[in-house]
């Protein structure tokens, strides 16, 4: 199995990249979140999942191990294939998907193109326990402080603020003791 590629970024498109490793160019399908995370550096490390189908062999790429793990969880659900998994990861970041699953937020999952009510419910039922075991770059996101921070970030983004800017503002003020309301108010002062 090909777990990652470390090479030179030859081409970058919103849905795929080409990475050259030892003179061989690998086409890798990516999500929009991965596209945003990949800089313009020539040197790249991309985590991959190799999927073999009857009619194709496709390499899927992810900016983080957490995104790859979420992809593998998603495609384990009946009715969700690799393309739908990539659409889900293009619509929401892994932390948002995990939060929606953990809080049984069918509406958020259903808002993703191609996901109906039954599939959204199946995702929640099949993956709810697995989300507790997932660790993201900041640890398990389901601790109380991270949930408050996530709720504040979601509120700021829904107000129209840039997600990265809101995230940086929350980093500056978050000590873990604030309420969601206080986090939002303090972040608004910075933004």
Summarize this structure as a short list of keywords or feature phrases:
191 residues; alpha+beta; OB fold (Dihydrolipoamide Acetyltransferase, E2P); DNA polymerase, domain 1; Helicase, Ruva Protein, domain 3; 5-stranded mixed barrel; 9 helices; 5 strands; 50% helix; 20% strand; globular
Report on the structure:
The chain has about 190 residues and is of the alpha+beta class. The chain has three domains: about 5-60, Beta Barrel (OB fold (Dihydrolipoamide Acetyltransferase, E2P)); about 65-135, DNA polymerase, domain 1, CATH 1.10.150; about 145-190, Helicase, Ruva Protein, domain 3 (Orthogonal Bundle), CATH 1.10.8. About 50% of the residues lie in helices and about 20% in strands. It contains nine helices and five strands; from the N terminus they run βββαββαααααααα. It is globular and about 50 Å long.
């Amino acid at each position: 199995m090909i777990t990652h590629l470390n090479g030179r970024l030859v081409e970058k498109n919103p849905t795929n990249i080409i990475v050259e490793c030892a003179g061989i160019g690998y086409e890798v399908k990516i999500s929009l979140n991965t596209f945003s995370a990949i800089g313009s550096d020539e040197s790249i490390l991309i985590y991959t999942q190799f999927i073999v189908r009857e009619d194709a062999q496709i390499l899927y790429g992810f900016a983080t191990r957490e995104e790859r793990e979420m992809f593998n969880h998603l495609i384990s659900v009946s009715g969700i294939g690799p393309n739908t998994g990539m659409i889900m990861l293009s619509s929401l970041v892994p932390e948002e998907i995990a939060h929606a699953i953990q809080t049984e937020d069918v509406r958020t999952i259903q808002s993703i193109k191609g996901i109906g009510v039954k599939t959204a419910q199946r995702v929640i039922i099949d993956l709810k326990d697995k989300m507790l075991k997932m660790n993201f770059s900041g640890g398990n996101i389901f601790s109380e402080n991270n949930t408050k921070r996530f709720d504040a970030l979601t509120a700021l983004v829904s107000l129209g603020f840039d997600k990265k800017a809101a995230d940086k503002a929350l980093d500056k003020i978050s000590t873990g003791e604030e309420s969601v309301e206080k986090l939002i108010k303090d972040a608004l002062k910075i933004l």
